Amino acid sequence: TEFVYVPEPQIISFSPTIAAAGDKVYVLGNNLFQIRNVFIKDKEMTDILSSDDGDSLTITIPVDAVSGKIK
Q1: What integer pLDDT is reported at residue 3 of this predicted model?
Q2: C-alpha to C-alpha distance for 54 and 9, rounded to whole angstroms
Q3: How does pLDDT run along the chain (71 residues), one tens digit per residue?
Q4: Burial 5-22 (b: 16+ CB within 10 A, else e)
Q5: How many CB atoms lie within 10 A of CB 40?
Q6: Strand ranges (DSSP E) for 1-71?
Q7: Which terminal Cβ of the chain has fewer Cβ within 10 Å, N or C?
């Protein structure tokens, strides 16, 4: 068995800081291709697209989203 080190994901920035239902939020960082779940407050986002290089995520805000921190 071979051990493979995978650096943890790092968020550098995101925009916009305010978004409405149907808007897209763009997250920039490193190693984001590892992310499988994104939550805003305690609501799981289901429309997430990761770039092939792992440097960005695109999240579409659902109709029933609430305000809160990205986790």
Answers
A1: 87
A2: 9
A3: 788 888 899 999 999 988 888 999 999 999 998 888 888 888 888 899 999 999 999 999 988 888 877 77
A4: eeeeeeeeebeeeebeee
A5: 19
A6: 10-15, 24-30, 38-40, 43-45, 48-50, 56-60
A7: N
Neighbours of 25 (CB within 10 A): 20
Torsions phi, psi of 48, nearest 5?
-125, 130
Structure token digits, residue 30: 């490193």
**β-strand partners of 56:** 28
CB atoms within 10 A of CB 54: 16
- Distance, CA of 33 to CA of 55 (rounded, Å): 8
- Please say whether the beta carbons of 34 and 6 come within 8 A: yes
CB count within 10 Å of CB 45 equals 17
